[in-house]
Amino acid sequence: MSAQKSRVFLIFGVRVKKLNFRKVRSESVLAILLVAAAFFVGCRSNVSNSNTTSPETVSMRRVTDDLGRTVIIPVKITRAVSLAPNLTENIFAIGAGDRLVGVTTFCNYPEQAKSIAKIGDTMTPNMESIIALKPDIVFVSTASQIEVFMTTLEQQGIVVFVSDPNSLDDVFQSLIQLGDLFGTRDQAETLVSNLSGRVGQISHLVSFVEPRAERTVLPRVFVQISREPLFTIGKDSFITQLIKAAYGESVTADVETAYPKLSKETALALNPDVIILSESDDNRLPNEVFRNSPAVRDGRIYKVNADLLSRPGPRLVDAMEQIAKSLHQEKLRNK
Amino acid sequence: MNRKIIISGTLLIALLGAAIILAALFGAERLPLFDLNEQQMSILYDIRLPRILLGACVGASLAVAGAGLQSLLRNPLAEPYLLGVSNGAALGTMLAFVFFESFELSRPVLAFAGAGLATIAVYQMAKSRAGMNVERLVLSGVIVTTFLSSVIVMLTTLLDAAKLRSFTFWLLGDLSQATTNGVYLSLGAVTIGTIILMSQARALNLMMVGERDAFDFGVEVSRVRVLVFGASSLVVGAAVAASGSVGYVGLIVPHLVRLTVGSDNRLVVPFSAIAGAIFVVFADTIARTAIAPRELPVGAITALIGAPMFIYLLRRS
Q1: ipTM of model
Q2: How far apart are CA A160 and CA B145, in angstroms?
Q3: pTM
């Protein structure tokens, strides 16, 4: 709040100067600015006072986050806020969900996450709500708007930790890392060995029914993120790797960026064997351009829940299982 | 004089034909000139050509609306995008999408209603007893535009994340959702709108001098106003429902036309239609091919070309 206030004054001050007011006036503006600044500093020192007077002295430790920043966090985290649905899922999965005091409106899994206080959505979290929850640490997933988060929150003595898993392996690492932070490393390790066991099992199964899977022609897969306008996955998306791990070939693996809007001409010419729909309200049917594609002709359209597919969390393994089973359905059934 | 007009008219139509043919030659997929296979035929006839033709209709719509509004309001800055007419249509389209999703025709209908309401709102705010001056009109346009933008932003916040992405793209102007039916609808709207505007061209010429003078010459001022507002709402509604908000077309195209053929609306209106079509077809070819196989929103290209061009025109005059 106070940071914003001082900025408004500043803008106001500059404006007044631009209008060419007399020097006397601009001096009085300067005076107002100084008063505002004094007020602002006063507010801040109040805050830091209240922090230092907090009863318990907590022991701290140094950790490194996914952006390579060194952050100092309490050894025992008791109050955490998650600003991304996948991080909420990760924290619950390693058994620290009870320490989440704030999540986003997007955080709808697991069921318990729905009853945790909401602090806005990932793009526009409400700083006041976050600060009011008095968290020890705030988990952020993407680098977007990170500067805004960090300065405002760190002024309040709240640590921002960036955890940005972007592949299945990243998810496993992130889970172990979170286990470390929350002191549930054992549970995290059990979970990761379970999940990677499932990944191993599904690739074993597919390579068993399709022994030469890596040498023969893999099913050519188009992943439709949104029907109109037509968005798909590009080379920077972790879903591209997920398709590969499920012994499929993404037909848009070479397209720049993670989620490009694709030309319909190109989409038509791609002739995918399989279409995977990231299932959401307006994405339940393949785009009209696929009318004559082998995928539509053979009825090989599969839906994977958008939350499973788009969140780099433990349920990504569910998505991978579903994709692998869809891609190699017939051969798996024959076994 | 007459001969010059015929020559420039023919030239402009030829240019539109050339632009369409040229645009059809370029795309994300490279097509051979002859012996197209079934799939290539489908790319050309189901995707590329409908999009080019829709672009032409949208460009013509926005340009004639700009030409009509500029003459009626005696204001060179009158343009569907700047006056809030486009935003009114955009809001209408969004409401249709949210509440009547299954009913396809609700989008152009509500877009038309939104465009009409926005036009009336701007006009009512801008007029005063002393008549209408440039500042008041532009100011009212800005107010209506920003107000409608905030309502649109509020709506996108309330919609879920997946829909939000498609809307932000669509709001910047996007022709990728062209269908054959959409082309027919836009073509119908722009034909009717242009005919209405041309029928009022003589009256508009007189009104450019001043509403009172026009009245003295026997022009039914209020009737002309209703017809011009109605026609521009119709064409803008159809254009926005099909492609979102494509800016600057209604501003720079009529200006360029006036620079070449003078300010007689009997020429400005039809010439603007053709020139607007050429402009958007050209801009969309860039949008389709610049970063293929990905795409840019066409509204970003028209603004990128339009804004500097407008500044140039402003400094020249």
Answers
A1: 0.86
A2: 38
A3: 0.83
